[in-house]
From TrEMBL:
UniProt xrefs under InterPro entries: NadR/Ttd14_AAA_dom (IPR038727), P-loop_NTPase (IPR027417)
NadR/Ttd14 AAA domain ranges (all copies): 6-167
Superkingdom, taxonomy of origin: Bacteria
Pfam family for this entry, one: AAA_28
This protein's name: ATPase
Organism this protein belongs to: Caulobacter flavus
Taxonomic path: Bacteria, Pseudomonadati, Pseudomonadota, Alphaproteobacteria, Caulobacterales
Length: 177
């Protein structure tokens, strides 16, 4: 387990990336969401790894990238914040294929015991070129994560619906408590 690896996950469009940007501005190490990087790096609109074309291929690539991110983040520094990560990727893989990936991957690659969960927040949810799914799909994804995290023995801390700076203060205070 990497006690300094902190997972920030939850509902798509719930403010995770904004929170990570704030933590980075404060000098913390952050790792960008694998899914957004995969979509940006796709070779074209018919690339098979895109989530709206082949969700299983996308999830497998996200697992690979999340594992590589964890390896790259190892070192003697403080908190490392992950925008999504292996739990999200493995959960998506299970949803797309039925393959029991989540528990096995998590056992070998744990995050800090406290995981921060961004709740559904329809007022700030927006689709974009990298996130094409709507709010209903985001809620479904959130439900999977909300159930999976406690089953994996993580302490789930729901992020408050407040300003980005206040959320960052909350995360740091919670980790230091």
């Amino acid at each position: 387990m990497a006690d300094n690896f902190v997972l920030i996950t939850g509902c798509s469009g719930g403010g995770k990336s904004s929170l990570l940007a704030e933590l980075a501005a404060r000098g913390y190490a952050v790792v960008e969401e694998p899914g957004r990087r995969i979509v940006r790096e796709a070779q074209g609109p018919d690339d098979r790894v895109l989530p709206w074309i082949d969700p299983a291929a996308f999830a497998r690539r996200a697992v690979e990238l999340a594992l590589a991110d964890r390896e790259a983040a190892r070192g003697p520094h403080g908190w490392v914040f992950f925008d999504r990560g292996l739990v999200d990727a493995a959960s998506a893989l299970e949803a797309a294929t039925g393959e029991p990936a989540l528990r096995a991957l998590d056992r070998a690659h744990r995050y800090h015991r406290r995981v921060f969960l961004a709740p559904p927040w329809p007022e700030i949810h927006v689709a974009d070129a990298e996130r094409r799914h709507g709010f209903d799909a985001a809620l479904e994804e959130y439900g999977r994560l909300e159930a999976a995290l406690p089953a994996l023995d993580y302490e789930v801390v729901v992020l408050p619906r407040t300003s980005v700076a206040a959320r960052a203060d909350f995360v740091i205070a919670t980790l230091e408590a």
